[in-house]
């Protein structure tokens, strides 16, 4: 068990934003990194913990900070634990590193992060971030929360995975677990909350929420009537 | 041994008046103290033990200077003793300078990952005073103004249900609506027989849906 490689999931956008980071995780730390369409967060390091990698500069402008906040809010609905890694921006070669005074709004943002109960880690670059992600994944494995099933799903299972991923506030790791550990969608739908919690590595509270969703009685009246933006809504049916 | 270790922390939760910060006597006259003057009301007290500043009844600051980092492991013992003895939320402020940079990552790992405390790096006491000012301000603010704090929002399940059912191969929006209206919930849809499905959609699609949900 100890020698098995650490498993992490990375969001697709990280492939362009931080290619050095992902290759460092693979090459230097021997981790198994799967790039997939995470709907929120930059990385997933265990069944319950997601990581938001945010550049220091993103915390400096109000508009960009709000975007980070929105992403974190979304993560909080899905994951039990959120870690924010604040990474120093890369400066281009030849450009003098700016030695300006530390802006007040940066401290304000850090204070708000701490008050919201988020774990914050600091990194001076992509390689350091890779080492932090490895440490996080290790810590989670020690607490028996590591990603337990392979991140790859084959063939028609991919469609089943996409089906699970549309369940509100269900994270990628839980959807993977459902794919690998339940025989079919029907088996999931017929499971008790505690069986869901055990199989999908969810808290009982979250499992109950999923259980309610699967049994929720649909009422067409409650569907918001969205006029088709292209203005051809009813004509087709 | 434990009694000795507990002794300095017994000052633990002190009563901090609103808008004030209580500082350890040893910080009197320091750069931090001077810079905090005029921004927040700072009172000095003796016998705060391991704590450097109390920001509120629940939050306090432990300061680790460049010299502490270079001097060795004493500061680690101090942090562990604090963590074991106090229920206060501890914020650790660490001087990360060119000299102490090499020690930063292991310290961060210890504080955040192992002790579960909050850690902020600063370059010098000036930056630390600015950070403390913001931490105090944040505490006096209404919690709802915090953009990172989880907001409760309940959404209707109907649009999500429609999206979920549309993920079944061969099912578009129209068929998804028909299926949901006929069977009520995903649970009932999953337990429908091919015959029952055929009453709503065509034979081929009914078989396709059945295969997707049940195998």
UniProtKB/TrEMBL annotation, chain B:
<feature type="domain" description="DisA/LigA helix-hairpin-helix motif">
    <location>
        <begin position="168"/>
        <end position="213"/>
    </location>
</feature>
<dbReference type="Pfam" id="PF17949">
    <property type="entry name" value="PND"/>
</dbReference>
<keyword id="KW-0227">DNA damage</keyword>
<dbReference type="GO" id="GO:0003682">
    <property type="term" value="F:chromatin binding"/>
</dbReference>
<keyword id="KW-0234">DNA repair</keyword>
<protein>
    <submittedName>
        <fullName>FA core complex associated protein 24</fullName>
    </submittedName>
</protein>
<dbReference type="InterPro" id="IPR041663">
    <property type="entry name" value="DisA/LigA_HHH"/>
</dbReference>
<feature type="domain" description="Fanconi anemia core complex-associated protein 24 pseudonuclease">
    <location>
        <begin position="14"/>
        <end position="136"/>
    </location>
</feature>
<dbReference type="InterPro" id="IPR040646">
    <property type="entry name" value="PND"/>
</dbReference>
<dbReference type="InterPro" id="IPR010994">
    <property type="entry name" value="RuvA_2-like"/>
</dbReference>
<dbReference type="GO" id="GO:0036297">
    <property type="term" value="P:interstrand cross-link repair"/>
</dbReference>
<dbReference type="GO" id="GO:0043240">
    <property type="term" value="C:Fanconi anaemia nuclear complex"/>
</dbReference>
<dbReference type="InterPro" id="IPR026985">
    <property type="entry name" value="FAAP24"/>
</dbReference>
<dbReference type="Pfam" id="PF12826">
    <property type="entry name" value="HHH_2"/>
</dbReference>
């Amino acid at each position: 068990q100890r020698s098995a490689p650490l498993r992490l999931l990375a969001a697709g956008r990280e492939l362009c934003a931080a290619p050095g980071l992902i290759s460092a995780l693979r090459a230097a730390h021997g981790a198994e990194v799967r790039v997939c369409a995470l709907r929120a967060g930059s990385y997933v390091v265990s069944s319950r913990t997601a990581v938001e990698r945010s550049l220091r500069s993103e915390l400096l402008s109000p508009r960009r900070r709000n975007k980070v906040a929105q992403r974190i809010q979304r993560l909080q609905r899905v994951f039990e634990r959120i870690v924010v890694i604040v990474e120093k921006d890369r400066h281009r070669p030849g450009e003098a590193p700016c030695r300006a005074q530390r802006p007040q709004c940066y401290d304000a943002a850090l204070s708000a992060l701490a008050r919201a109960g988020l774990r914050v880690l600091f990194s001076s670059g992509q390689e350091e971030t890779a080492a932090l992600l490895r440490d996080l994944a290790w810590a989670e494995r020690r607490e028996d929360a590591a990603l337990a099933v392979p991140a790859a799903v084959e063939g028609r299972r991919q469609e089943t995975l996409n089906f699970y991923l549309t369940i509100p506030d269900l994270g990628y790791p839980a959807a993977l677990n459902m794919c690998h550990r339940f025989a079919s969608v029907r088996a999931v739908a017929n499971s008790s909350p505690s069986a869901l919690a055990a199989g999908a590595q969810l808290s009982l509270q979250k499992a109950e929420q999923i259980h309610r969703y699967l049994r929720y009685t649909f009422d067409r009246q409650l569907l918001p009537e969205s006029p088709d933006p292209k203005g051809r809504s009813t004509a087709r049916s | 041994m434990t009694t000795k270790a507990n002794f300095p922390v017994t000052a633990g939760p002190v009563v901090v008046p609103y808008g004030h910060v209580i500082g350890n006597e040893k910080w009197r006259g320091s750069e931090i103290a001077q810079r905090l003057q005029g921004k927040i009301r700072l009172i000095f007290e003796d016998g705060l033990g391991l704590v450097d500043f109390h920001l509120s009844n629940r939050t306090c600051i432990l300061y680790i200077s460049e010299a502490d980092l270079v001097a060795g492991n004493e500061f680690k013992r101090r942090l562990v003793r604090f963590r074991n003895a106090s229920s206060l939320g501890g914020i650790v402020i660490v001087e990360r300078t060119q000299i102490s940079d090499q020690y930063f990552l292991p310290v961060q790992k210890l504080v955040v990952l192992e002790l579960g405390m909050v850690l902020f790096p600063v370059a010098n006491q000036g930056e630390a005073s600015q950070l403390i000012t913001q931490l105090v301000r944040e505490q006096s603010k209404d919690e709802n103004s915090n953009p990172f704090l989880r907001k409760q929002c309940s959404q209707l399940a109907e649009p999500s249900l429609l999206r979920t059912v549309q993920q079944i191969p061969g099912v578009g929006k129209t068929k998804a609506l028909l299926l949901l209206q006929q069977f009520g919930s995903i649970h009932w849809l999953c337990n429908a027989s091919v015959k029952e499905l055929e009453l709503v959609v065509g034979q081929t699609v009914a078989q396709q849906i059945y295969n997707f949900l049940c195998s």
